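TL;DR need C-alpha cells for one chain.
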Amino acid sequence: WDHLHLEDLTGDHVGYIVYYRKKSTTNTQWSVMQVNGRENFVTPTVGADNYYLEYEIIVGAFNSLGFGPNSTVASIMSAEDMPISASMRVYGDPFNSTAMMVHWIPIPNTRQYIRGRILGYQINYWSQTITNPEIGSTNIYCDCGEGMVVGLDPDDDYWINIQVFTNAGLGPVSGDGEGSTYIFPPMNYPEYVHVASYMGNAVFVTWRGISTGLKEEPVIGYKIRWWPATENIRLANDTIVPRMLSHTVIKGITDSVVYAVRVLAYSSGGDGKKSPTVYFTLEGMVVYNPETTEILNSCRLIQATSWMYCITCLLLYCRFS
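>> reply
TL;DR here they are.
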C-alpha cells in the first residue's frame, strides 16, 4: 500500500494494521497483523494448502492516539505453488536447416494442475549425435502447445522435453520426444541476373538457375528480392518463382527510381545465398563499374539525367572558383 501523506501523520508511533481473510460467502472472520513504523508491506503466512487463492485485504493506520479510518476492501491472490503436471506427446518437426517446431499437449491452466497461472513453457533440447551434448533451452511465453527452437545444427537429430513454468518456478520434466532439422539450404547463388524493360510499369528479370548437391535440400523455387536502392534490403519485396522457371516479371516499378535486385534459391532448408546486387530502373538494367564509379546505361533518361548533373556541377564550379 501507499504510505500516508506527511500532512496525515498527526501523532507519534505511526503504524499500520492489516486485516485479511480468504474470500468466500461463509468466512466472516478477519485475521489481523500489525506493522509498526513506516513499512508499507507485510507477508502473512496462510498455509501450504492455501496457494493461489483470492483474499480480501483492508489496511488502516494508527498512532499513539488511536486508530484511523480503514481503506476499502481490495482483492489479491496468495502466492503460487510449484506446478505438479507435465506435458505429454512431445515431438519436433523440422522447420528449416537450423530450426524446428516443437509440439506438445498443453497442461490445463487450472489451480489443480498448475497451482498458479501459466507464464509459458520451457523447451529443453540436446543433440543425439554428440557424446556429452550441451543442453539448450528456449522459453515460450504463452499458454500454447507449440514453439520454435532456432540456432540448431543442420541435418541433426535432437531429444526434446518440456517444462511448464509459473511465477513459482519450473514444473516437472515431460517425457523425451524427438525432433530433427533439414539438411543445408542451397549453397550456390543464381548467376547472370539481367533486367530488361517491359510493358507498362514492369521489368523482365532473367537468371541462370542452380543445382544442389547431396548435402543440400532440393530447390523449391526462387525469390526475386527487389527494393528501392536508397532503402534498406530489410524492406525489400519478394517475388516468388517456381523452380522450373528462370525468368519473371516484376510489376509496380516507379519511373525515375533506381532499384536493386538480388536473386536467391530457397528450399525446405531455408533461403540460399543471394546473387550480387544488380541495379535497374523502369527503362532497364543499370551497369555499375565499382572501379571507376561510372554508370553505364542504355536508358536515355538516365543518360540525360547524368549529363544534366555533370553540366550543373561544372557551372557551379566555374561560378565559385
